[in-house]
Write a structure and sequence with these properties.
The chain is an all-alpha fold and about 110 residues long. The chain is built from four helices and no strands. The chain has one domain. Belongs to the UPF0060 family.
Length: about 110
């Protein structure tokens, strides 16, 4: 799997997880309809399935995915919640992405 396809799959996986967690948040905290839990459950099932598509050991995938998740969550904070990240948020994103790259793409 190429670097770009791996990153793309991680990004789509992170979006599925965040949506699956954000929708129940809307129900619990923002008085959204209980029906919002159906797409939330679907999104979390999609998240689990997407993680299974990577051709390497599950533990390595989960560890590396965490770095991409952090970055996508910060971008979600900005794009959906309307809160502009600070410089240190971006530094943290860079560090987690560097760690993800070392975990997934270092020679073995």
């Amino acid at each position: 799997m190429s670097i770009l396809s791996t990153l793309g799959l991680f990004i789509i996986t992170a979006i599925a997880e965040i949506v699956g967690c954000y929708l129940p948040y809307l129900w619990l905290k923002k008085s959204a309809s209980v029906w919002i839990l159906l797409p939330a459950a679907f999104s979390l099932a999609l998240f689990a399935w997407l993680l299974s598509l990577h051709p390497t050991a599950a533990g390595r995938v989960y560890a590396a995915y965490g770095g991409v998740y952090v970055s996508v969550a910060i971008l979600w904070l900005w794009g959906v919640d309307g809160i502009r990240p600070h410089l240190w948020d971006f530094v943290g994103m860079a560090i987690t992405l560097l760690g993800m790259g070392m975990i997934m793409f270092a020679p073995r």
